[in-house]
Write a structure and sequence with these properties.
Blueprint (H helix, E strand, L loop, with lengths): L6 H17 L18 H16 L18 H13 L8 H5 L1 H8 L2 H13 L4 E4 L15 E4 L3 E8 L10 E7 L10 E7 L5 E6 L8 E12 L3 E2 L5 H14 L6 H14 L1 E2 L2 E2 L4 H29 L7 H24 L15 H10 L10 H12 L7
Parallel strand pairs: 1-4
Antiparallel strand pairs: 2-3, 3-7, 4-5, 5-8, 6-7, 9-10
Helix pairs in contact: 1-3, 5-7, 8-9, 8-10, 9-10, 10-11, 10-12
């Protein structure tokens, strides 16, 4: 296998690295997971929007999108380089991180010319912010059981129902969502995909406060909300097909990210902390744990390269994405578990203290980490996908 990059690809890397070093402010840098796409407050939100607009104007947002929609038609290899440099720079996730990766490609595939013209460039620039309305109180892992209804009233739908676990809804201008438009059809039928102006009368957003005290998620209620018919994306009653395109992109980004950065931070911690009067990185157990985490990180990296190789050869997607979702979540859990062992009492400190000024960051990781096993489809669902579609095992009951 050839893991070397061409001179042109290295030039691309240098160009992006140089731009990030010159333009990403220090107060926005961090080691981000997809859950961190939600800014903690409005001040940070506006700072991230400003940076996103700057990146868009420089041609660095949605680079894999076609040029006619605001991207730069980047190759798969350039996308890999882009992700590596983005994480290396510890740049903040865009406010439209998930929509750019999921909804944008879906809209390019299914949207009308008017919809593409209206939304795509503004999504990349951050002028419009989006959230996803899929999960409901009784339709999380069983998404097709959704009950939110959009009743046909001629030129518009009347929307009633509820969505939950809606990331960044408090900042969103628009929601892309699944609704039931034919209640008499089987549950995977009669579903349509629409988008909704979040400022419409009858829309209410209520925050869900996590045990870390943060507000990533929300409940959203719809009370006789009027939605124009031209907000339909894809054919009426065929929203499940649209959703499968979106979810395919979601699983690709939901296994956690920045594993190498986290492991590097653990190494740094092990140099600064002491065990029995000596640096922790001299302890055999600590060294073994760090080595094991690094091994799993490398295995995940090369599994991703296997998936990339399939794409470069024009082959259909294999089981790698589901494997990466499972392995990525498992590695994040292991990193955080070992961090708590290494930090000891510092792991429960909400403010920086003594030799560990970043203790509060690790505490947030501890409190939030379980969410990675749920977002983008639970780990159990990913295991079922591999068992049924790859191994040909009978469906679970």
């Amino acid at each position: 296998m050839d893991f070397e990059f061409t001179p042109e690809q290295e030039k691309f890397r240098h160009e992006f690295r140089t731009w990030l070093e010159a333009n990403v402010p220090d107060d926005l840098k961090g080691d981000y997971e997809p859950i961190d796409s939600t800014p903690p407050d409005w001040e940070t939100f506006h700072k991230r929007v400003a940076l996103q607009k700057k990146m868009y104007e420089a041609g660095w947002m949605g680079i894999w999108w076609p040029r006619e929609y605001g991207g730069r038609g980047a190759s798969l290899i350039e996308q890999v380089i882009y992700e590596e440099e983005f994480k290396r720079a510890r740049a903040p996730l865009p406010v439209n991180f998930a929509p750019i990766n999921q909804w944008g490609p879906t809209l390019i595939h299914f949207g009308t010319p008017a919809q593409k013209q209206r939304f795509l460039a503004r999504m990349l620039s951050g002028e419009d912010t989006w959230c996803q309305g899929y999960s409901e109180p009784n339709a999380g892992s069983d998404l097709a059981a959704l009950q939110t209804r959009a009743e046909d009233h001629g030129d518009y739908f009347i929307l009633n129902g509820q969505k939950i676990w809606t990331t960044s809804a408090q900042f969103a201008d628009w929601m892309y969502m699944l609704v039931r438009t034919d209640p008499s059809a089987p549950k995977h039928k009669g579903i349509s995909c629409i988008y909704l102006d979040m400022h419409s009368p009858g829309v209410e957003v209520r925050p869900l406060v996590t045990m870390s005290g943060e507000r990533h998620f929300n409940q959203v209620f719809f009370d006789n909300v009027r939605v124009p018919k031209d907000s339909l994306v894809g054919p009426l009653n065929e929203g499940w097909r649209v959703a499968m395109i979106t979810l395919a992109y979601e699983r690709a980004i939901s296994g956690g990210s920045g594993h190498q950065n986290q492991i590097d931070r653990l190494r740094d911690l092990a140099r600064r902390l002491t065990i029995n009067g000596h640096p922790a990185n001299r302890d055999a157990y600590v060294r073994q744990q760090l080595a094991q985490l690094q091994i799993e990180c490398e295995a995940l990296k090369y599994t991703g390269l296997r998936a990339l190789t399939r794409q470069l050869r024009g082959q259909p997607a294999g089981p790698e994405l589901s494997l990466m979702k499972i392995a990525g979540c498992d590695l994040v859990l292991k990193i955080v578990r070992f961090a708590t062992e290494l930090l000891g009492s510092h792991a429960v400190v909400a403010d920086g203290s003594g030799p560990i000024p970043e203790a509060a960051d690790w505490l947030m990781r501890v409190l939030n980490v379980r969410g990675t096993t749920i977002s983008g489809g639970t780990t159990e669902i990913s295991r079922n996908i591999i068992g049924e579609r790859t191994l040909g095992l009978p469906k679970s009951t």
